[in-house]
Structure formats: structure tokens, C-alpha cells
Amino acid sequence: MEEGRDLFLVCNNIEVLGGVQTWAHYMARLFTRRGHRVHLIGIVRPKRVHDHGTDFPYARTVLHERPPGGRWELRGVRARASRRKRAAHAEQWRGVRRLAEILREARPGGVVVCAEVWAMEWVQRALPEHLKVVGMVHESYQASKIAGRHPRILRHFAGADRLLALTRADADDFARDGMTNADFIPNPLHVVPRRYAELDAPVVVRLGRLDYEKGQDLLLEAWARIAPDRPDWTLRIHGADKSGGKEERRLLALTEELGLAGRVEWPGPTSDIETALCAGSVFALTSREEGFPMAILEAMAYGVPCVAFDIAPGVGELITDGVDGLVVPAGNITAFAAALHTLIEDGELRRKMGRAARDSVQRFAPDLVAARWEGLFDLLYR
User: Fold this and answer.
1) For a pLDDT cut of 70, what percent of the chain falls above it?
2) Which of 79, 150, 235, 270 is 20 to 30 A distant from 255 in Cα terms?
3) Are 285 and 306 within 8 A, CB to CB?
4) CA dist., res. 210 & res. 263, Å (int)
5) Which keywords appear in this protein's UniProt record, sorted alphabetically (predicted)?
6) DSSP state at residue 76
């Protein structure tokens, strides 16, 4: 298609600091740069708004200022008699009508990309007949089952023109569940390093929100096995606590309990990924759940070798164990500590793996990934 398409990227929300939101804003800029007309749409505005920039070359819309909390149908006399439930129901459908108005303006050949399954509940009610829709799953197949989203993915994305996972293995798993529309496209490399980590600072670094599923507690347990032998090294954990401080307090208490006071730094969240990563020599990922971990992609781009739990196919897609990083069995704290120790002790191995990591992530260069998306768009309209 010589003329750019109308593309609508729809997420649960578009204003928090998260992997899906980082992906959405980056793809919106990338598609715009390649000549498409992009509209980024969030279902609801979050309580805490992250600064994703000010110079947006694409349209943005939020359908609801707060979660409507309604049901799509008012069933029973009691529900229909409740003023609160009627108001929530009406607000939910108001969002659908607003989304339908936006989508009706699309030119022929437009595509709706629904990045999260909850948002699909609005999309499937607002979608005009002349548009194609692509559903997405940004977590691994197994993570979707653990989180309880798997049945909703099968139900709401069954009618999509495509269901995209981030890895072939995850797409194959969904296909075995009867999702004949399953395919995959990985996330693009969304950072452009101006410099690379020198890998001589005695720092293990971790970036990611403070959250149980991100497994910072497991990282602290692994660090407790290394810290006594390497008093010259520091563990630095960047991240914001979205639980109102509950998770941070839990992690700080665990730090004290493990005798790690003074051996772990908590600088808080950062938007300066380059400085944070270049100040470290090893990146550690101990998540309990991931999809296609953006944090690993970022670290590898800056030449920081990673040690990661093998918790999703995306980890293996990114890291070739023993070549550009180290992958250990999920949840095995002893093995994780040993892998960290290996990279801490061997500076030459760190540098060798760091160089290999920088080269490896070029497979996910933005224009290569965008071309795959455009090929999919063309295929949908054949």
C-alpha cells in the first residue's frame, strides 16, 4: 500500500510506565515516521500518569477518566433499579460510542491493533465492518494461564483477524488451543545507544517496577549468597512501587533480614535508562512472569550481559545461553547466584558477552520489525 494506513493502537491505558505502554508509544512513533496515520487510544486514565513525552506526532485519546466498573448488560430487576449500576453501565457504553466514532473515520485499509485483552471488550463492540483487527498478547502463554487471562484471550480474540504473540513458541501454544489466527511478531529494539557500558563498574543492576511478579525478592536472596564474598560489589535496583509503597517496604524489610543493609541501593524509578545501564556491569532478571522482556532487550542493546531466569520463551529468544548472557532454570536461586558470580569474577567474559549482546539485538532493529507489521497489514487486505 503506497499511501500510509490508518492505524489504531488500543491499550487498557496509555499513560502508565509499563512494557505495553512503552511498546505502544514507540510503535506509534515508528509507524508515524513510516508514513502511517496513527491514533493511540487508552480505555481508562490511570491514577498515576507517567511522562511519555510531549512531542507526540500522533493522536491520543482516553475513553474514560476512571474505570467505569459496569457490566455490558444489566441483568435482573435489582441491577436495573440501581442508580450506581445504571450509571456505570451507561458510562461503559459511552466509551464504546466514542471509540466507534473514532474508528468510523478510518480510511479503507485501516487496522485496529488491540494490545490487551480487556481493551478488546470495547473494540469488538465498536469495530466497523470495514476495518481489520489484530489482537495481541504481550505476556507468555504460560503467564496468561497463571494470571487467569487465558480463557478471556481465547474468547475475545477468537474473532480477530490475527492474534499476535511475541514468540513463535507462544503462538504455537495458542494455535494448539484452537486459535487458528495465531502468529507472532517480536517487540522492536526501542533504544538507540549513544554509548555503551564499559563493564568495569562493580555493580549488578536491575530495572523494573517493584512488584512480586518481577521477583526482586528472589534477586535479594541470590545476592545474599554472593555479597559476603564480594564486598566491593553493589546491587542496584531501580524501579517504582505501584502498590502505594507496600512492595517497597516488603523488599526493604527482606534486605535487612538477609543482612544486606548497605549492599543494595534503591535509587527509585528512572527515565534515564542509558545512564542506569551504563553504570552497571551485569544485568539481573529474576522475574516470575515475563513475555518478551523489554528490560533484557534494553540491557543487551547497551552491551550489558544478562543473567535471567528461563521463565518464558521470550528469554530464550533474546539470550543465547553462554554466548551473549546466561540463562538459568526458573526459580533456581542457587543457580542464579552461581551465574552472577561467574560474570562478577570474569571481566573478560563479561566484555565478550556484552559485545555479542550488542550484535544479537540488531535482529530486532525497528525498521525490520515494522516491515513485518506492514507485511501483515497487506496480507489482511488481500
Assistant:
1) 99
2) 270
3) yes
4) 18
5) Glycosyltransferase, Transferase
6) S
Torsion of CA 176, 182, 186, 188, to 10 degrees: -160
Domains defined along the chain, listed by start: 6-188+365-380 (3.40.50.2000), 203-363 (3.40.50.2000)
Per the structure block, which three cell numbers stand in for 339? 551465574
From 72, 120, 26, 38, select the one nearest 377 (Cα to Cα).
38
Q: Which three cell numbers stand for residue 271?
A: 527515565
Cα(184)–Cα(173) distance, integer angstroms: 11
* pLDDT tens per residue, range 248-261: 999 999 999 999 99
> Which residue's entry shows cell 433499579?
81
Distances (CA, A) of 320 to 190, 243, 325: 20, 34, 6
Q: State how far the Cα of 339 lies from the Cα of 328, in Å rounded to an integer.
A: 8
pLDDT tens for each residue of 332-341: 999 999 999 9
- Tell me if 116 sits within 8 A of 12, measured CB to CB: yes
Cα angle, residue 143 at apex, residues 38 and 12 outer, rounded to 5°: 30
Q: Are 88 and 64 in contact (CB under 8 A)?
A: no
Taking Cα atoms as reference points, which of 50, 24, 220 lies closest to residue 113? 24
- Residue 274's contacts (CB-CB under 8 Å, 6 or more residues apart) are 191, 193, 194, 195, 302
Contact 237, 265 (CB under 8 A): yes
Question: Residue 368: enclosing H or E segment and its boundaries?
Answer: helix 366-380
Biggest CA-to-CA distance, the chain: 72
Nearest CA to 26 out of 64, 63, 50, 53 is that of 53
Strand partners, 163: 135, 182
Please list the residues that pair with 112 across neighbouring strands: 8, 133
Can you spell out the DSSP letters for 205-230? EEES-B-GGGTHHHHHHHHHTTGGG-
Confirm if 274 and 281 have CB atoms less than 8 A apart. Answer: no
Task: Answer yes or no: pTM beyond 0.70.
Answer: yes
Residues 6+ away with beta carbon under 8 Å from 158: 179, 181
pLDDT at 2 over 70: no
**Cα-Cα-Cα-Cα dihedral sign, residues 39, 40, 43, 44:** negative
**Burial class of residue 336 (count of CB atoms within 10 Å of its CB; 0-12, 13-18, 19+):** buried
